[in-house]
Amino acid sequence: MERNRALELVKVQLTDKRYAHTLGVMETAVMLAKRYGADVEKAELAAIFHDYAKFRSKEEMKQILIDEQEDVRLLGFHHELWHAPAGAVLVRKEAGVNDEEVLSAIRWHTTGRPGMTLLEKIVYLADYIEPGRRFPGVDDVRTIAEQNLNDAVLAAVKNSILFLMGKKQPVFPVTMDTYNDFIQNGDDG
Ligand SMILES: Nc1ncnc2c1ncn2[C@@H]1O[C@H](COP(=O)(O)OP(=O)(O)O)[C@@H](O)[C@H]1O
Ligand SMILES: [Fe+2]
């Protein structure tokens, strides 16, 4: 799908602020794809659509997760986690995107997963470091992202886990599994 068409489809789904974030993720994902040899067009498309379902109702997202037999553990965690897998489903159904690599990068952009693909890492990291993001540690991750993709994704995963723990919030186990995967498998992860 052409970039402007994708942006048009996404813009109406989002608030202005979230759309601005999306543009930041798009630019960052394209930059990272060029740097690390990923498919630039797929990275751009996945980034544009990554938060497509962000403002859907809890009820709609929950029903999608049940219908599509997504990981049932998600239902026991914060609904913020639901927009990523629900988004992958809706982007296929409503926007007609059928590229599994693109859909998978949307699906895993919030939690990460063990054995992340290059495209999944790029979208996950772009979401974390896009220029509009301001949280403790993000500049360190930006610096690492200039050198080593796996190290940068690991740093982002670690920061996210520590951030949630700092607020005494539950951590979805797949993110812990992602952390362990990077630690145990290093550059193969
Ligand atoms: N493993 C996790 N367990 C629980 N909550 C998480 C986990 N990972 C991310 N979150 C929370 O989910 C929310 C959405 O994350 P994300 O999709 O990365 O950002 P965005 O707000 O840009 O959509 C964030 O508030 C984050 O704190
Ligand atoms: Fe998101």
UniProtKB/TrEMBL annotation:
<dbReference type="InterPro" id="IPR006674">
    <property type="entry name" value="HD_domain"/>
</dbReference>
<keyword id="KW-0378">Hydrolase</keyword>
<protein>
    <recommendedName>
        <fullName>bis(5'-nucleosyl)-tetraphosphatase (symmetrical)</fullName>
        <ecNumber>3.6.1.41</ecNumber>
    </recommendedName>
</protein>
<dbReference type="GO" id="GO:0046872">
    <property type="term" value="F:metal ion binding"/>
</dbReference>
<keyword id="KW-0479">Metal-binding</keyword>
<dbReference type="GO" id="GO:0000166">
    <property type="term" value="F:nucleotide binding"/>
</dbReference>
<keyword id="KW-0408">Iron</keyword>
<feature type="domain" description="HD">
    <location>
        <begin position="18"/>
        <end position="132"/>
    </location>
</feature>
<dbReference type="InterPro" id="IPR003607">
    <property type="entry name" value="HD/PDEase_dom"/>
</dbReference>
<dbReference type="InterPro" id="IPR051094">
    <property type="entry name" value="Diverse_Catalytic_Enzymes"/>
</dbReference>
<dbReference type="InterPro" id="IPR005249">
    <property type="entry name" value="YqeK"/>
</dbReference>
<dbReference type="Pfam" id="PF01966">
    <property type="entry name" value="HD"/>
</dbReference>
<dbReference type="GO" id="GO:0008803">
    <property type="term" value="F:bis(5'-nucleosyl)-tetraphosphatase (symmetrical) activity"/>
</dbReference>
<keyword id="KW-0547">Nucleotide-binding</keyword>
<dbReference type="InterPro" id="IPR006675">
    <property type="entry name" value="HDIG_dom"/>
</dbReference>
